[in-house]
Write a structure and sequence with these properties.
This protein is α/β, with parallel strands linked by helices and 266 residues long. It has helices at residues 8-22, 27-34, 38-45, 53-63, 68-76, 83-91, 110-117, 125-138, 140-143, 156-160, 167-181, 231-247, 251-264; strands spanning 94-99, 149-155, 186-191, 205-209, 215-221, 224-228. The model has no long low-confidence stretch (mean pLDDT 88).
Amino acid sequence: MADVPSPVAGFVVAEIRRARGTAGMTQEAFGRAAGFSASHVSSVEGSARALTMDFIRGADRAFNNGGLLERLVTQLGAASWFLPWLDAERGATQLRYFEPNLIPGLFQTEEYARAVLRLDPRLTEGEVEHRVSTRIERQAVLAREDPPQVVVVVDEHAVRRISEGAEKMMSEQLLQLVACAERPTTTVHVVPAEVGLHVGLSGPLSLAHLPDGRWLGHLENQLGGDVVDRPDGLATLFERWEGVRSEALSRRQSLGLIKKVASQWT
């Protein structure tokens, strides 16, 4: 019966309410399927009663979604800083990503994501698997009926970085990146190693354009991440985005480089 901490709880309750509405379920019908009274459902949705894991499991049964909400809460309970960005990413009309060291999470294969997450010695294997599942589920945004326009810039070092014995994994990862880049709504660019020092080496950045016209930024760091919504902060991120984008190869050149590297490890 453990309570789900805020702000994770607020996010999940909103998702339950949204899914219930989409399914055309009243609070009473949802409650019957989830194993709770209509008054209990109303109290949870109105924030008068705490959200518990039992309620989340009941919601998963009601929606017959294979335990999606429980996995989401398990993964995000220790990473609530990521929730605002996750919500923005899911609803964005445009997305921009720059990554100097790794393939961005939205384009990772399961094996690549698993290898990256295992670098954190604090995570158990169970936690790693939960985070891999959640990361892969994020990729649904790319295949939705009205996908966002996505532009990705990666440093060549991210394309070439590999661990001993992981050639097959990296080849598959790069081929998936190419497959994503060949979609009409996604563009991938590579900053070649010959550029040397550039403004993007200070760290990765992400930008999302929301349906209401606002932009939101996101920065990850060793301790978590920060959402950027202040005009001065966004202005800085756009300056740095334009800086790395101007150093990158064209789309065709970038795909050629990625395919060449992938073929070396096949």
